[in-house]
Design goal:
The structure is a homodimer of 511-residue chains. Chain A is an alpha/beta fold and 511 residues long. Chain A has a domain of 213 residues: Beta-carbonic Anhydrase, Chain A (3-Layer(aba) Sandwich), CATH 3.40.1050. In chain A, 43% of the residues lie in helices and 13% in strands. Chain A is built from 15 helices and eleven strands. In chain A, the strands form two sheets. The first copy, chain A, has a six-stranded mixed sheet. In chain A, helix 10 crosses helix 12 and helix 11 crosses helix 12. The radius of gyration of chain A is 23 Å and the shape is globular. The termini of chain A are far apart. In chain A, 49% of the residues are buried. The N terminus and C terminus of chain A are likely disordered. At the A-B interface, helix 8, helix 9, helix 13 and helix 14 of A face helix 8, helix 9, helix 13 and helix 14 of B. Chains A, B: One of its GO terms (molecular function) is carbonate dehydratase activity. Chains A, B: Its EC number is 4.2.1.1. Chains A, B: Belongs to the beta-class carbonic anhydrase family. CsoSCA subfamily. Chains A, B: This is Carboxysome shell carbonic anhydrase. Chains A, B: Pfam families: CsoSCA_C, CsoSCA_cat, CsoSCA_N.
Chain lengths: 511, 511
């Protein structure tokens, strides 16, 4: 690997060999920031002594994380106080005034009015508040794009990617909520330009991935996007498994019994299956490149497993970002990059130079996240276990780029997605149901608005899955311990969220 | 349209403008033909006086239809006789001997042995016999390819198609069993070269069709198959609706309330949606051609609606094959072709010459089927209503090219396919359940054997759908009134059927 090159040239003239290692510069939020009164853990977003960590990006990411999570985390204390007031005079008006002031929205009046007859229906109010908070968050995300890169930065990323020899990056992490931020935070990649579909245990669906590959390649042939088909670039598939360095035996990947070796091997096997599927289904040397990445969910540090000369990812060989971060602290930017390049070359000597460059870029990007966790979470998250705020079921959820916000179940039907759903409901049984709070489920299907009938079909699918979900968890649903918000979104026109219903409606409240 | 050309030149030198109007020559069956002792309705397979009807093809199609349907139709009379013998001495051995001799397979011994304790379990035996008959039929089909065209004929078809301006034909008929023979019999097209997916009311899925188009186009770019992407040919999507000329108000399409105009308009709308989806999703002039076809399920005569100059199919404008057949009877082949060309030009003057040629080819092909129905079924089927022998659920069923043999429910999950399943179960309630016989369901998913894990996933899907099917019709399943045969097939390697289980197994019989 050549040393001494300026991979992070900040001048506007992009050098052909310029890397992408520098975390993205984000444009400032354009909307009015929502109040975030109790912003916690604001212990200095800058880590002294690491040349590759730009404080600006970390500040911006922290603002987003704090704003969104604090909005969700206000709900429980608020309802606890509300519960104490439920038998007071003027309860309804008082509650609404409090809700407006503290949460930013009103509560369903009928539930408040009926509190004197039966106990205040806290389950209903909890689901209502989670859904209203989610709605405001998603609206804000699509309207103001708080995490979007500058257009110039997006171009820079595409150019860097192609210099590394790739035209598309498709990432399949585990659906565990502790990986929900893997694209924009952990790897500092532009979420709009990198594909993400999460599956329990990173066991992504080979047939679905095959279809995405076919779509991508046709677009290169027909439309020259993201580049023309004659460019010698490849489709890169990344699988992200995870583990817990602090409590490896209990806080690792549930789908693989918290066994890191099993999780890594399973992700490697699935990657190979996908590659083999393409090689066997298409002639003329069709193939893809593979990359295996491990995430320590306690610290957000990563292990990158560069493929060998045959393109095979090896669970036993990897470069660890945290050790590299520590060894390069205090060095100048050039020296850090040189050192990273050397370490990658030492482990990945046989792999393509472009792949090595990409791996180095991921490691350097991750430095910013290591600094972020050290600065804002004492180097190790307080919630190293599950702490998701809602389940995200369906297709879409581009707005969810935050750790432990959402447990994903990407699916088209409950029939196929039942195993991932069961894991999610189990997680929320521990988090919520055991305390008597419901599992809040956002059911959502994105559609391509330019396809006739696509919106209607997305709506029908959302309602069908809602029905099937009730059918799978009938006791929870009957007891008000499973609530669903139904939404669709035109992803082709980058629309905002359209809420089409919720399980709270039969009480007479329309959402 | 040029007149006087020899569209049916039988010489081996294919002229560039040679049509495909001549129904396919099939190679003779290579296996031992199964006994078909009571071959009915053999009233002369040749119709005097029509120049475009080759007796050879009709003889072969009749042999296949008679052999398969008679095998299914032997089951009920056989079981009726068996029932009468159930209390006789040596019943088991006698029954097995009869079954071997008359049906070609044995019965589950335990059911026979237990007949003295409880009544002979006719429901179980009925499902067993249907499944064994289906298995033998499917095996025979894939081993001996009784309907396959000669390789030279297949090339001729592809060449003709491309001369008409198309590289792929994708047909979506209604899933009604009375259309199950539409490809190979009604339209006399090679079933292996033409795509078919059936949906209730011909309401095919736009997103799935879009994926097939993408796959086809990528294959043209990457592999030059079926032709290279620079050839100015198009993807042709055909929707086939249906009606009953004899009992239009009751024996039309159930999904459209037996209203022919509604059925035709719905198929036209779905075609347009698909075309618009492609035009809006892909740039650079991407589009497809559309063709609307109506089938009279009483007579197998067709109406072809040629598109207008803008490519729009019009439900109100069509050419009817039966009237043309009658008007051209007694004429020489050249004169018939000329006449057909004129009639098509009169209705479809504005459409592309290639489309007109294709429409004329379909009409001429259908003449053979009109002759077939007249010769073998008195011009109008005895079973103008439903008379399916089993339900085919899943993906595959290339072997089913016979009228009223199978009600199709093409689906990936019961959750999505429930409406088509409900229609099927309703049909079989009338045919079987009301008399106490079960609904026999063949559950089947074809897979691409070259994709790693595809077989295992197909097997898992088959078992999952079987479970979901029981969940949807629990009472029928508990009463032994719904039985399923589970099978998968490697369609990429053109494999035979692999039976992986059946609902008859819990009784102790392994299938």
């Amino acid at each position: 690997m050549p040393t001494g090159r300026n991979r992070h040239n900040r001048s506007s003239t992009r050098r052909p060999d310029a890397g992408y290692g520098r975390p993205m510069e984000l444009r400032p939020e354009r909307g009015e920031p929502r109040a975030a009164p109790d912003r916690r853990a604001r212990v200095g977003a800058r880590v002294a002594g690491h040349a590759l960590v730009p404080a600006g990006d970390n500040e911006r990411l922290l603002a987003h994380e704090a704003q969104v999570k604090e909005a969700f985390d206000r709900i429980e204390p608020f309802l606890r106080r509300l519960s104490a007031l439920q038998h007071e005079a003027d309860f309804t008006d008082r509650a609404q005034a409090m809700a407006r002031a503290e949460l930013g929205f009103e509560l369903p009046r009928r539930i408040l009015d009926n509190a004197w007859i039966q106990q205040l229906d806290i389950r209903h109010l909890y689901a209502w508040c989670v859904f209203e908070t989610y709605r405001a968050y998603a609206d804000d995300f699509y309207r103001h794009q708080p995490l979007a890169p500058d257009p110039a930065e997006a171009d820079r990323f595409q150019a860097w990617l192609q210099e590394c020899g790739f035209h598309t990056v498709d990432v399949s992490p585990c659906s565990d909520g502790r990986l929900a931020h893997v694209i924009r935070y952990v790897l500092r990649l532009p979420h709009g330009l990198v594909r993400r579909k999460s599956f329990a245990g990173a066991n992504f669906d080979v047939e679905t991935s095959l279809r995405r590959w076919v779509e991508t390649e046709l677009s290169r042939y027909r439309e020259g996007a993201p580049n023309t088909a004659d460019a010698p670039t490849r489709y890169l598939k990344i699988a992200v498994y995870h583990f817990s360095s602090g409590e490896p035996a209990t806080q690792g990947c549930a789908a693989h019994g918290s066994d890191t070796a099993v999780a890594a091997a399973a992700a490697r096997d699935r990657l190979r299956d996908f590659q083999e599927a393409i090689e066997n289904s298409f002639c003329c040397g069709a193939s893809i490149d593979l990359l295996l990445v491990g995430l320590d969910t306690d610290t957000d540090a990563i292990r990158v497993h560069p493929p060998d000369a045959e393109g095979e990812p090896d669970p036993a060989r990897y470069v660890e970002s945290e050790a590299l971060f520590d060894r390069t602290q205090g060095l100048g930017a050039e020296a850090v990059r040189e050192r990273v390049g050397e370490e990658v070359a030492a482990v990945a000597g046989g792999s393509e130079p472009g792949m090595q460059r990409f791996v180095a870029g991921l490691l350097e990007n991750n430095f910013a996240q290591i600094a972020y966790v050290r600065a804002n979470h004492g180097g190790r998250y307080g919630d190293i276990g599950h702490n998701e705020r809602f389940m995200g079921v369906g297709m879409g959820f581009e707005e969810v780029q935050l750790r432990n916000l959402t447990y994903f179940a990407y699916l088209q039907t409950v029939e196929e997605g039942a195993p991932d759903l069961d894991v999610g409901v189990k997680i929320f049984s521990g988090l919520n149901v055991e305390r008597g709070l419901p599992v809040p489920v956002v059911l959502r299907f994105d559609y391509h608005g330019q396809v006739p009938g696509a919106r209607e079909r997305a709506e029908a699918r959302t309602r069908r899955v809602a029905e099937a979900l009730r059918g799978r968890f009938p006791r929870l649903a009957e007891q008000g311990l499973l609530h669903t918000l139904l939404a669709v979104r035109d992803c082709a026109r980058n629309g905002t969220l359209e809420v089409i219903g919720s399980s709270l409606e039969p009480t007479g409240e329309t959402h």
